[in-house]
Design a protein that fits this description.
Largest sheet: 3 strands, antiparallel
Strand content: 5-15%
Structural class: mainly alpha
Number of domains: 2
Order of helices and strands: EEEHHHH
Distance between the termini: 39 Å
Shape: elongated
Radius of gyration: 23 Å
Strand order of the largest sheet: 1-2-3
Oligomer: single chain
């Protein structure tokens, strides 16, 4: 952390939730931290557990269900993760594994 006014690294945190530069005396507010990503990660973990053993077998089926609760990017990433985990959990032939991996790859597009 450095002072935005003079660049000094001699900065103190005040009880008023402000920073104070000990060199020039400049005060500035602590930046607001956005924690919504934590809520999204928790939601994705719950959805992973919900859909890991669900009967939906293709990327399209999983996406349709996941996009009801997540944005498209997160839904695609989670669908691919679910398909890959399913493939790794099952004892499948190489052809079946290749099919599941290609389906998971389509989820990223």
């Amino acid at each position: 952390m450095s002072c935005p006014k003079c660049g000094s690294r001699e900065v103190a945190l005040l009880p008023s939730n402000e920073f104070l530069c000990r060199r020039c005396g400049h005060r500035w507010a602590i930046p607001h931290v956005d924690y919504t990503w934590i809520e999204t990660d928790i939601k994705k973990a719950k959805l992973f557990e919900k859909y890991i053993d669900a009967p939906a077998e293709s990327c399209e089926e999983l996406l349709a269900q996941l996009m009801k609760e997540l944005d498209e990017k997160n839904a695609r990433l989670l669908a691919a993760k679910i398909l890959i985990q399913r493939a790794e959990r099952r004892k499948l032939s190489k052809a079946e594994l290749a099919r599941l991996y290609s389906d998971a790859e389509r989820c990223f597009q």
